[in-house]
Amino acid sequence: MYIQMTDGVPPPPEQSSLDHRIDDLDRQKEIDDWLPITSSRNAKWWYSTFHNVTAMVGAGVLGLPYSMAQLGWGPGITVLILSWVITLYTLWQMVEMHEMVPGKRFDRYHELGQFAFGERLGLYIIVPQQIVVEVGVCIVYMVTGGQSLKKFHELVCQDCSPIRLSFFVMIFASSHFVLSHLPNFNSISGISLVAAIMSLSYSTIAWTATAAKGVQEDVQYGYKSGTPASTVLSFFTGLGGIAFAYAGHNVVLEIQATIPSTPNKPSKGPMWRGVVVAYVVVALCYFPVALVGYGVFGNAVLDNVLMSLETPVWAIAAANLFVVMHVIGSYQIFAMPVFDMVETFLVKKLNFKPSTILRFIVRNVYVALTMFIAIMIPFFGGLLAFFGGFAFAPTTYFLPCIMWLIIYKPKRFSLSWWTNWVCIVLGVILMILSSIGGLRQIIIQSKDYTFFS
């Protein structure tokens, strides 16, 4: 039936409703084109390689020899290998679940959680943990960047007056007050590539310089703690340090969201290719650093293996500078989903207009906040273990398995069913034990530290 429109005559209700829906869709598209995660979908498969390397290899690799010292040879090697295998499996699950519903992409971790657990419960389960992980990583990388800058300064200017760590954290943070205004993942791809190259470079320097130093004369491989209770708690801390080293899952869906996808060529193909290459690089970084570092220094190794090395000066100085360059990229990788969450909340829930001013304020406040906390509590080893257990273990080791069981419902007692339940049990144990160890480590280190000293 044709309805002629005349001046002064209101449109029919159906037409008004349609116009309203079109306006909503236009506004939604405008917001999606502005938000960091969904604004660009033209990434290549190798983008996922260096984004994942940058996200995963970082502060964690420098703490692996220290974790080995707390675990010992047998348990340490076992946990290292199991973690590599389990996290590669759960990462594959995340890549597969990104487009499991035809015509829909789960661009963010919490969107997948909402599909698996329900709209409200999914948010309550995923978002707090993801925020803890990503903000926690940014804080730890502030500490790492500051420590590495301080070490670099001490090595290249040995006659200079010492400068407090707090100032080096501020220097490191200054770069992020600029870089944080890059709009999306693809815009930081160049930074991520440089960071990935730096991670392989300083890891290679770390283990080769350690190997060149040779096994120390008085090296000891036994547990360093004096009492059985402290030995057990240190063991828990070591578990958390290794859990922290495998952290890329929290941003994997957001990375995959930048890859183009069609029904004939879904994004999971190029994404998985990039992940496999990234995991080979991860193995080349992690295993030599962990095994050689512990083998040379034994239980005397520091919680950042580069801090245990003094010679050759040029190589150790270069490695520390490479660490700074890498964690600059890593900070951006983990900050981008936080920016996306905050900006989404502001423009969708509070109806702020998407604008450069809004983005400028949000991102500067976030960088300042993480810098402030890093200056307050620079407990590198304890932070690694605590965050590794409290938040990384769930989002990396067993939440993907739980969602897989809920969504795909594999036959009970099948290989898939058993594999997922084994990962869940191991992940829960890791979460509980390493959180206890990490919290205890922070308490011990805080006894000798004055805030803002």
Automatic annotation (TrEMBL):
Going by the UniProt record, its keywords in alphabetical order are: Amino-acid transport, Membrane, Transmembrane, Transmembrane helix, Transport
Q: What does the UniProt entry say about where the protein is found?
A: Membrane
- What name appears for this protein in its UniProt entry? Lysine histidine transporter-like 1
Indicate whether Membrane appears among the record's keywords: yes
Residue ranges constituting the Amino acid transporter transmembrane domain according to the UniProt record: 42-437
Q: Which organism is it from?
A: Camelina sativa
InterPro entries in the cross-refs: AA_transpt_TM
Tell me the first and last residues of the signal peptide. none
Q: Which gene encodes it?
A: LOC104777788
* TM ranges: 45-66, 72-92, 121-143, 163-179, 191-212, 232-253, 274-294, 314-339, 360-380, 386-408, 420-443
Q: Which Gene3D superfamilies match?
A: Amino acid/polyamine transporter I (1.20.1740.10)
